[in-house]
Amino acid sequence: MKRFLPFLLLAVLCGSGAAAQEPLPEADERLRSEVRRLSERSRTWDRVLARMPRISGYLQLGYEADDAGTSEFFIKRVRVLLQGDISPRMDYCVHAELVSPALMDLYLRYKPLRALNFQLGQFKLPFSIENTEYPPLKIEFIDYPLALTRLVSFNDVCGMTGATGRDLGLMAYGGFFAREGYDILSYNVGVFNGEGINTLDANKSKDLVARLTVRPVAGLQIAGSYYWGEYGKEYLRRIRYGAGIGYDRGIGVARSEYIYGRTGDLRSDGWYVMGGLRAARRWLFAVRCEAFTENRDDSDTRQMNYTAGITWQPVKHLRCQLNYTYEHYAAPAAADRNVVAVMLSGIF
Length: 348
Hints:
Helices cover 16% and strands 54% of the residues. It is an alpha+beta fold. A 16-stranded antiparallel barrel has the order 1-2-3-4-5-6-7-8-9-10-11-12-13-14-15-16.
């Protein structure tokens, strides 16, 4: 009997310890109630944070010099963006420029269906691949091509300046035949004031803009654009046609567009071809050839630019670009130029 007494005592002690560790029913229920309360509070905060605007932006500054003796430091852009969701099918964007203070974008989007969505406010015109899909932090060069800036509401031949390819209006857009990350067929169609940003319409006419895009495979797109409008109090007729093709996937990028414009009796056109190669995830080497003729009835108004560029992004919040451009002017009185530019983009 004495031999089994220690084992019996040990068993009693272990049983007592297990009973002491087992929570009482009341304590267990209080614990579960506290967990439910904290979980509900966490979900409430998640819903509040989801409705808060997301703040981002960037600044771009640099230096430019040419062989004519001109050199200057410049501040190109300082942008701030606020974006947020009103509901699962509605969002908004406020986008401001601080260098020469101006409201760039202010719009509401309603997205009931993949094939039919609406955007109301001030935003990019749905014309050209480069204008809509290559913002300043994505485009491979410091400056946009001449065909775009002179015919699509940047420094337009009609006299409009500073609109950066934007206008006030209403647009419908959507896509069909969905694939992973893209639609094979998509469209944009909208009506706009036709006067640029932050400007009321100067006439009773509204401008029509439309674009159709086909993406046969991932990374490849073929697009056609059309613009019809009347500008200013004089109802100056402004018509634009555009067509382009682009591939952007993996290490390679290539893009080309042609834009034709008729502004009153003035006929203009331009094109560009570019190609680039990404290396080591941080480097992009690109070249571009472009031409623009302001007046097709006068060959002396033709300008051709040849640009080589390097983009280096060592970290997420810093982008460095170096461009060399040779500018050739058809006019005998205009001297050709060699231009070197450096630009740094700080991103937040």
